[in-house]
Amino acid sequence: MAVPYTIKPLHYLALLLGACRPRIGGIAFTFAIAAAGYGLSQLPGLHYAGQMACAILLAVLYRHFLGYPHSLQQGIQFSSKNLLRLAIILYGVKLNVNQVLQEGMGLLARDACVVVFAIGVTLLLAKWLRADMKLSLLLGIGTGICGAAAIAAVSPILRAREEDTAVSAGLIALAGTLFAVTYTLIRPLLGLTAMQYGTWSGTSLHEIAHAALAAAPAGEDALALALLAKLGRVFLLVPLCLALIFIQRRISKRAGGAGEEQAPLQYPWFLVGFAGMSLLGSSSWGQAVIHAAPAAMNGLTMVTTFLLTMAMVGLGLNVSLRNMGAGVLKALAAMLITSLLLAIWTYVSI
Description:
Blueprint: H1 8-20, H2 22-41, H3 51-66, H4 73-91, H5 97-102, H6 105-129, H7 133-144, H8 147-158, H9 162-190, H10 194-204, H11 208-215, H12 220-235, H13 237-256, H14 270-282, H15 284-292, H16 294-316, H17 326-349
């Protein structure tokens, strides 16, 4: 494979920076691979996959062929943890709470059913296939909520390994892209109106980018409905995290005995930042700024996506292809079957 060797000069440059300040060298390294992933995603065909999936792939291939750059570990961990939390906080700007609430309980009830369906069916299939259950849970949450961002948000709550977080984020990105492209190809055969198709896309696809990719060819109305339906699922990220925290603490108490917890669970405070940014962006002042400066908001979206990509590079460097067993493939199978069943169910129910 020639691709990882093209990154070798970036390694040496990062080592040079790291000789002065180790953290800067590691951050620069994740930046370089994220930039290479962005460039790769601009190539014909690969633009459907997106920069995150391409960057994770490059990081995994780098680790597989060239090994983990231990001298840059401090900065890489900074990217995989601190930049990840910052990206999730900024991600909250995308969520317009007012739009979700204006649609009423009907939208939230439908989206809640999607979340429960995605997580429940994925776990049932994973148990039947004897797949890795924690990885399957991450994939189910990513399928039901908002892809890699949801996986990154719940990983510290579930105490998931960084390797599982990176693998599940990469699989979600690739699977969501596959489904989104398939949606656009079969749209003329479905017999749906633009509004129905937009609702279906937003209700069933994995990430906001996937919903936008699938719905855009059907027109602005379809795109608006797709994003609205998808935002309803993003809105459920915080209550889902709170529910997971409650469950994890109950499990810890039972394991600790006499009401004492083992390995106390730390609350992911970056979710407060996510909720705060959502409320700020949904306020009248925030909406005025968004409408007055669309270019600035597009820039913020690009920065957020790139920060998340850098974080995923840091996580991807922890993935060892040699240590990946059948459990990963079985978890992938469970997620793909769930995604297909979700697409069929939401299509029939429109």
